[in-house]
Amino acid sequence: MTAEFARARSDEQRAMRRRAILATAAEVLGDGTRVADLSLNALARRVGLAKSNVLRYFETREAVLLALLDAEYGSWLDEVEGELVQSDAPADTASQLERIADVISRTIAARPMLAELVATSAVVLEHNVSAEIAADYKRRAYAQAMRLVGLVEARLGELPDASRIALAASVNLAIGGAWGMCRPSPGMAEAYARDPELAAMQLDYRVAVRELVATALTGLLARSVAPWQQNGTSTTRSRP
Questions:
Q1: Which pTM does this prediction carry?
Q2: What is the pLDDT of residues 105-117, one digit of tens each?
Q3: Contacts of 58 (CB under 8 A, 6+ apart)
Q4: Where are the domains positioned within the chain?
Q5: Which Gene3D superfamilies match (predicted)?
Q6: Residue 233 belongs to what H/E stretch?
Q7: What average pLDDT does the chain have?
């Protein structure tokens, strides 16, 4: 990077700098660096800036990665929506449910960087950020969650409010939880290789996500068949 890169003056220039930093972070993680191993110093060197200059645009390493997670998640939802719109829709609910689970699992399996960002979001990325950054991220995450829910509801029918939040959370838990379980340590991978019985415990990431999402959708639909009740009284659902 040139010296001029660090001297952003206008809002447009600052936005360009932020995009360049995010693109570099994505490039580093795409090369195989784990989220836990990406330091702000290493990122600054890769961008061609001093660490202090990177901090002009993002307050911490975690703030960079939360912004990257937001961008990558939105791009993934674009792909999910495109897949669901373009493919032929089965008539029955059960087949439609399986189709949704397959699209979600297939597309996220092709995005390992996003899977790892989701897996580390609550335990790593949401720490070491200010309340302002945390609130901004959560607002964006909520909007994306409701977009995901909308894509599902358009094909399976409207869900109660509590089920809508549970659906979004279940998908993220499937993406993040399965990611860790499907990446065994070198020692565990060797144990799987040595013992065929143990190898049955080694999960395929795409299959694991598909089954977890399909199971969550099945349960949420079953629980919402009867009029939704909370504490024994029916509740009226509202939409933003």
A1: 0.85
A2: 999 999 999 999 9
A3: 18, 21, 64, 67
A4: 1-58, 65-227
A5: Tetracycline Repressor, domain 2 (1.10.357.10)
A6: strand 233-234
A7: 88
The tokens describing 112, both together, are 């390992």
- What is the rounded CA–CA span in Å between residue 190 and residue 216? 32
pLDDT 10s digits, 70-81: 999 999 999 999
Phi/psi at 66 (5° precision)? -65, -40
Residue at 15: amino acid letter: A
Do the two domains 1-58 and 65-227 of this chain adopt the same fold?
no
In terms of CATH architecture, what is 65-227? Orthogonal Bundle (1.10)
Rounded to whole angstroms, how far apart are CA atoms 224 and 3? 59
Over residues 155-198, the pLDDT tens digits come to: 999 998 889 999 999 999 999 999 988 888 889 889 988 998 88
β-bridge partners, 229: 234
**Is 145:74 a contact under the CB 8 Å cutoff?**
no
* Mean pLDDT for the stretch of residues 15-44: 92
58, 18 Cβ separation under 8 angstroms: yes
225: confidence class by pLDDT, cuts 50, 70, 90? low
Answer yes or no: are the C-beta atoms of 213 and 167 closer than 8 Å.
no
In terms of CATH architecture, what is 1-58?
A: Orthogonal Bundle (1.10)
